[in-house]
Amino acid sequence: MDSLLRIGNGPEPESLDPQRMSSVSALNIARDLGEGLTRIAADGRVLPAAAQGWQIADGGRRYTFELRDHLHWSNGEALTASDFVDGLRRAVDPATGSPFAQLLSPIANADAITGGKAPVSMLAAWALSPTRLQILLKQPTPYFPSLLAHPVSFPVYGPALARYGRGFARPGRLVSNGAYQLVDWQVQAQVELRRNAHYWDDADTHIDRVQYLPTDDIASELQRYRANEIDVSSEIPLVQAPALRTQFGAQLHVAPYLGSYYYGFNVQQPPFAGRRDLRLALSLAIDRELIVDKVMNGLALPAYGWVPPGVADYRAQSPAWASWSRQKSVSEAKRLYAACGYSKDRPLRIELRYNTHDDHKRIATVIAAMWKQTLGVETSLINEENKVFLAQRRLRRITQVFRASWIGDYDDPSSFLDVLTARNGRNDMGWHDQTYDALIDSAAQQADPRRRAALLERAERRAVDDMPFIPIYWYVSKHLVKPRVRGWHDNLLDVHYSKDLRLDDPAD
């Protein structure tokens, strides 16, 4: 009998196109369907994947990757270095609209291409032979191999793309190169994968089928876990955390996670455009410790900056007010609010958007109450289905304040700081600061690690001071994992490949 792993996966994935997806739920599936030149180990190390190794030359600027022998697509056709070049070019092509195109910014000419100033053929990535790929960087980028584990860098099967266009990433059409292939996608029900017999390491893949089960209702997901209908949960209902610790013991995995939960301001539209003091007033009015202790049941850390703690060789920056007493924070919030022309008799009226999720609703309700009690702000809470919510954020036409999160794609501060640059497609706040961008660019050209870190710290301090976002808490990963699942390792990036897991016995 085929072995089946059932994974709770949060919101419905918006796409299975590796160059166009953006959500964590989509990326989870992509890492099973596809494979980059590298992969991330449980301890954060970068390991060879489709590439068996690489050489570095020209002072750290030129990478030459040697592909493994006998690589194939899921339809049995040969996978070549040109397919990886095609994937990289498609990712930076403005016509693709890739949310993660900026990850490939270290490649020479990538920024000019994404900015519409150069053709995609100018990307400094070439197939030297069917099994050799060369990439030239703008400047040495020590973390570059880790970027190639991200799905945005995955190869693309040209014939399917040519035939179906943007509709190629569907069952019966998607040809992939990872340990699994797509066999079924029922919206709001399941995405089913089956083992790819043509995968180079199929002999070490032990699970035959994987089902990703979407849900916006974490309580329902917990019920399915209790009923043995899923093996791994995407998270847990925060209100039930104490009881779940008692009931499930070691099945509950809580671990540090490179992720930030925040509220973004639309700084290109009223009432927050050019009004830093108003943004700061709303931030100061939030009691983060109360949210973490009472709403999150201790399963988070209060956040005051942009880059989470724990990033390798970096000192995360916090504003001076992070150490203020609650009384002092409230007093300053009221002063700034009044100075901006608002009062309880003339309140600020705003809309706060969040995607469907019980915990997002609870947090939004608590924060709206804090704003009302402390300042008199009248907040309209708007709950939207995830795809609609993401589209509204990016258009920035009607959004004012929105719930957001950022999960590190690799263990480096640039994974967070690059998001705030004017050129980044994921800068949904529309925040533009020339000095900030210059500091990020200078850091990218700095070979000395300590000097690079100092430039990035200056950049973060500038962003934190201008407050285009409200940091709320740092994530921890929270999964329930059945004892029958073997090989699960908690890690800072919360990246898990189904090919690395085993099942002890059939599900009950």
Automatic annotation (TrEMBL):
<keyword id="KW-0732">Signal</keyword>
<dbReference type="GO" id="GO:0015833">
    <property type="term" value="P:peptide transport"/>
</dbReference>
<feature type="region of interest" description="Disordered">
    <location>
        <begin position="1"/>
        <end position="21"/>
    </location>
</feature>
<dbReference type="InterPro" id="IPR039424">
    <property type="entry name" value="SBP_5"/>
</dbReference>
<dbReference type="Pfam" id="PF00496">
    <property type="entry name" value="SBP_bac_5"/>
</dbReference>
<dbReference type="InterPro" id="IPR030678">
    <property type="entry name" value="Peptide/Ni-bd"/>
</dbReference>
<dbReference type="GO" id="GO:1904680">
    <property type="term" value="F:peptide transmembrane transporter activity"/>
</dbReference>
<keyword id="KW-0813">Transport</keyword>
<dbReference type="InterPro" id="IPR000914">
    <property type="entry name" value="SBP_5_dom"/>
</dbReference>
<protein>
    <submittedName>
        <fullName>Peptide ABC transporter substrate-binding protein</fullName>
    </submittedName>
</protein>
<dbReference type="GO" id="GO:0030288">
    <property type="term" value="C:outer membrane-bounded periplasmic space"/>
</dbReference>
<feature type="domain" description="Solute-binding protein family 5">
    <location>
        <begin position="46"/>
        <end position="425"/>
    </location>
</feature>
<dbReference type="GO" id="GO:0043190">
    <property type="term" value="C:ATP-binding cassette (ABC) transporter complex"/>
</dbReference>
<comment type="similarity">
    <text>Belongs to the bacterial solute-binding protein 5 family.</text>
</comment>
